[in-house]
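Example (one chain per record):
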Amino acid sequence: MKDALEKLSHIDLSDDKTKAIVCAATVGTVLAVGGAVYYLNKSDEGDEECGEAAVEDVKAERDEYGLPVIECAVIEPVETDPVALGNKKKSEGNQAFKTGDYAVARMCYEQAIDLYPSDKAVEKSACYQNIAAVYDKMNKLEEVIKNCTRALQLNQKYIKALTRRAGAYEKTEKYAESIKDLTAICLVLGIEKAYKEGYTDTTDRVLKLYGKQAARELFQLYVEVLKCIRSKSYDTVYDTILQGLKLGATKYRTQLRCLQGIFSWLMTDYKTALECFDEVIADKESFVRIKIQAYLHRGEVYQAKSEQGRALVDYNTAIQLDEDHPDAYLHRGQFYLSIERFPEAIQDLEICIKLDENFCAPWQQLVYGQYQYAAKSQSPHMLEQVFSKIEKMTGLFPNVPDVYALYGQVLQDQKQFAAAEMKYREAMKLSPHNVTYKVHLAILKMMAEGSLDQAIELLLEATAQDPKCDFALETLGTIYIQKENYADALECFTKALEFVKTEPEAAHAYSMYIGVKCQKEVCEEYNVRPVSVKDVQGYSEMLPGPN
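Predicted structure:
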């Protein structure tokens, strides 16, 4: 100890570093000496092991001056930047999310939100969206919606949050809300980018779901109204049928019941129609040709009620009863067209034409189906076959206006506008009372020349000529959207809903109605422009098909 103190006396204390060493060493020495004295005293009292241990401690590692070496802990710098702290917590949350530890992930995102300053809205918004993703994994859809909404309150045009909330709304059957979010996405991204990323297809799919849902609810009430508003032409025939049945015309009962079913179907009295057709089919004395008609028309009722499986069973049964019945193949072919099973539709319609080449309806359906299939397949060879078939059909049925109208639609979709207009005008000449041809001409003017005013003029003529033409009303409403005249657009779709005759038609009209309503709200809320007519990709999807 004495030697150590002598060494210290020769150290130059003018240097700050040396002073620090000496200070630390001195403290260490004092502690060491105190410890040594204590343990040596304990040793004197007879505890040899304890004394030996104390001596060993005194002999601990020493520096060049003989002083005990004191190890100091390294203190890391403390992060104080709230943004950095928030980012760190968010990263921890992402890592926990990837490993499926959703409780930890959610906790980290919530902590990150608390750490971010109030002016970091985008960062906070991302964390709320991430919390929504956690709840999405847990299938807690209401929490998904709640947290996406919080994210969008901070970042209104956050596409990821809009997408996730739209999906949650769809899963909970809140279709109107889902459509509004999807419409916002399409308008914020721009229709071209939205189309490429699949948002337009999703919007269309959800619109159809909403249309079906709303139609089921509204149509039950609407059908009751329609029953009381029979057209004069139906009244006379229908009353005659009922009179015959009351008189007990047993010999012709099945024929009368089948006719009653057909007229009930036309008046959307599906319950009575099905009762009539069921009775005819169950009657063992019914003629086969009457049973076939009952199966085919019952299939149409099932289609109108969106019961596609039952409809197909009835069409198949009709063909089994008579494999050479052209009308049976026509009905099944039309059914396949409606669900876009084009190869089967084309096969059935070709069989129908082979059985009766002078039957115009299957020709129209065949051309329509072949064109849709060619457009979907993007096959130039198939398209050539379509035009060849159209020319043959026009030669066979030169006085049928629908033939020229269909020809015009195909030419229009191929952007052969001048030729298409000629076909529409030919159809209008053959049937001046059918306003649907004027509607097609209005659409052509809109697409070929971008002339909304001219299209509106033609459509107003059409609706004045036939106020109950839902096709004219829906098209006029669509053009009013381009003019940003939402009030008149909504009025058109509301009127169209009054004149539809089947549940699918009601679903379509209601989809258009809610689409306009959502677009109006989104344009106002997000300060974006509506989709322009120039954004329309093609016309083939707009083809309504032959009547």
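Caption: The chain has a mean pLDDT of 81.
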